[in-house]
Give the backbone structure.
Amino acid sequence: MRYLPLTDTDRAAMLDVIGAASVDDLFIDVPSEARLSGPVEGLPMHASEMAVERHMSALAGKNLSAGSAPFFLGAGAYRHHVPASVDHIIQRGEFLTAYTPYQPEIAQGTLQVLFEFQTQVARLFGTDIANASMYDGSTACWEAILMAARITRKDRAILSGGLHPHYGEVVRTMAKFTEDEIASLTCELTGEPDDAAVIAAIDEKTSCVVVQYPDILGRIPDLAAISEAAHAKGALVVAVVTEPVALGMIEAPGNLGADIVVGEGQSLGVGLQFGGPYLGLFGCREKFVRQMPGRLCGETVDAEGKRGFVLTLSTREQHIRREKATSNICTNSGLCALAFSIHLTLLGGNGLAQLAAVNHDRTQAVVERLTQIPGVSLLNDAYFNEVTLVLPGDAREVVRELADRKVLGGVSLGRLFPAQEDLHKGLLVAATETTTDEDIETLASELAAVLEGVPA
Amino acid sequence: MTRYFTEDHEWIEVEGDTGTVGITDYAQGQLGDITFVELPDAGATVAKGDSVSVVDSVKAASDVYTPVSGTVSDANGALADEPELVNTDAEKGGWLFRITLSDPAELEGLMDETAYKAFVETL
């Protein structure tokens, strides 16, 4: 296959068209402190494989990983048990067809899985349709806001105070250059979610409200009430689900009036993986399909009348619509979507409901035990598998001391909302089917000791 | 009623100050099977040359430019369920939208049927 490299003349012509003086001009957004001007300090120019292995293992050994200590962290990524069979099945050859399946004749393996995946997501979310996945929950959230703006032709989005602050940051970063108005409500340390504030904020200029379900503090918003209020003013409801296992127990957002449902699929089939790659989920009403971003797989018949699958409605996408496309993203999270789909298939509907019940039961056990500790109280009126506990003092310090005692006790609200001192006594604690009675007892005794000032 | 044509393969049939706009049979043949048509809203004010409609086929999305300036009065609702009308009857039943002309003098710059046919021969 021939390779035709660029010449300096080619480069100069391209730079001239875009109005840049040199290639360096394309990197002006990178702060000078972050730029590299020579070899990395302390990194040898080469080392043997054995030496590299020894060094990296030593570094890894300094980590306290989720599997090796009592673990109660959540806040958008959850430690669930992914059965070994998932890893085995996703490596089957039938699934190893093109990652970019635009030629259906040689990609039926991938395409069939994506079709099944879409069906599962649509059912889980209670939406008519779902796409073949996005990068992660946070970017899916932004894409939903853009989509709502296109549909309603309005440009004001309201973000509930219960939306994960990282998702809010992604939205505000992307909106910086698009002229969309983002109204971010403040997170308050209350037992009930901020439904009333969300409803009060909706006006005729609102394109959508973005509500996380369950929310960042583990509370469960009343999506039906919010949907009624939003629709009355011509606004759409975007529901954000960061823990899909919750949908084994609480009502699907689509059935409560949500027009677009997005989420993070990491809980099923995909481990914590140090933060990624994760799996964006995206579903919506059928009447909005032409405004939906991402790949969409459809079922059809071939020239001989046999069932087959193809990517469809491609005129939404970048390679055809260019700057008028529904998104600048033209890929999906294929392997993670496959793992999600396999895991959910192995669970089935009943299995998912059982899994959800176990998650909630474990969380109840955590709450019962921890609220016995003087000074520790439960904030939430309702929860699924994650709660906010209110401690006597700054929770961030407590989390650090617990980590020193080899207990990963949760995510402090001080870490998620550093600027909001009124939240700093809050601690997010999550439990799943992997949480044992032993873990709970260890967390309880260490937390009690830390709060009393007893040395480790 | 007089029919005019553009080099972008739109036709406009004018009666009084109302024009009916569509794409030519030649254009629909070039596009292939049409799957969806995005139409302008009634009341939209447009200038000659603005993209006011998009015709989607399986592998392409083609802008349709209004041959004249004016206000869109209505669009062909039948295309929502039957976009293929643009393939089977591009120059009549597959019309796209109607427009009230604000400057009839703009029609002078357009081709008549003979000129358009000659133009297509050159492509």
Q: What stands out?
A: The helical segments of chain B are 25-31, 85-88, 113-121. Chain B touches chain A through eight residues (CB under 8 Å). DSSP finds three helices and nine strands in chain B.
